[in-house]
Amino acid sequence: MDKPLTLIVACAANRVIGRAGRLPFDIPEDKKWFHDRTAGQTVVLGRICYETWPQVLADGRQPVVITSNRALASDRVRVAADVPAALVLAQTLPGEIMVCGGQRIYEETLPLADRLLLTLVHADVPGDTWFPEWRHLPWRETWRKESRDANYRYTFSVLER
Ligand SMILES: NC(=O)c1ccc[n+]([C@@H]2O[C@H](COP(=O)([O-])OP(=O)(O)OC[C@H]3O[C@@H](n4cnc5c(N)ncnc54)[C@H](OP(=O)(O)O)[C@@H]3O)[C@@H](O)[C@H]2O)c1
Asked: Are the CB atoms for 42 and 96 separated by under 8 Å?
């Protein structure tokens, strides 16, 4: 049987997830959550996300990078040309399969997702990259934690289908 597919994202109320190749907010508690939840797992991600995540190879993560640049492949980094090929490859690797963005990859995998680890930042922020609308899908929330820092109020949720 196939392993379940999990998407993990930090998303503003207006669905912005990125700005100029970076996160549009700096929320240390969310960064720790993201690192802790992806540690030891197979992470499926786009080329920009891969290049801008310095610790991607730390903590036992197994990256599957979606890119046309096969030269990024190494003994620790798998490369796939598109989302379907990445998911087939990810099924053969250890741990959970966690999709870590960016925009097109979230758009293509949201319809297939079994689970969404969502950090919803309760603010509209400017940006150039978006998470697809997820609120109309029939999720069951199995866990939630409200939190805040000096700049933002945010909610961690585990949503299952
Ligand atoms: N808030 C969050 O949780 C979160 C999570 C992830 C990302 N982000 C933000 O999102 C931004 C990066 O995302 P992005 O969407 O701009 O870039 P991305 O998906 O990380 O990378 C784009 C590149 O990946 C490849 N690619 C992506 N989708 C593909 C597809 N469906 N089929 C084939 N190739 C594909 C292409 O690589 P080649 O050009 O090499 O062929 C494309 O140029 C950053 O600002 C980042 O901080 C935020």
From this structure: yes
Q: Do residues 136 and 116 make contact, with C-beta atoms less than 8 angstroms apart? A: no
**Under DSSP, is residue 105 helix (H, G, I), strand (E, B) or coil?**
helix
> Is 150 exposed, middle or buried (CB count within 10 Å of its CB: 0-12, 13-18, 19+)?
exposed
Ligand 1 binding pocket mutation candidate from 9, 15, 48, 131 (most atoms within 8 A of CB): 48
Q: Are 67 and 49 in contact (CB under 8 A)?
A: no
Residue 148 backbone phi and psi in degrees, to 5: -160, 160
CA distance 156 to 41: 19
pLDDT tens digits for 19-46? 999 999 999 999 999 999 999 999 999 9
Choices 2.60.40.10, 3.40.190.80, 3.40.430.10, 3.40.50.300: CATH for 5-160:
3.40.430.10
The Cα 62–Cα 76 span in angstroms is 7
Asked if 115 and 161 count as a contact pair (C-beta separation under 8 A), the reply is yes
Ligand 1 near 48 CB (within 6 A) = yes
pTM of the entire predicted model: 0.98
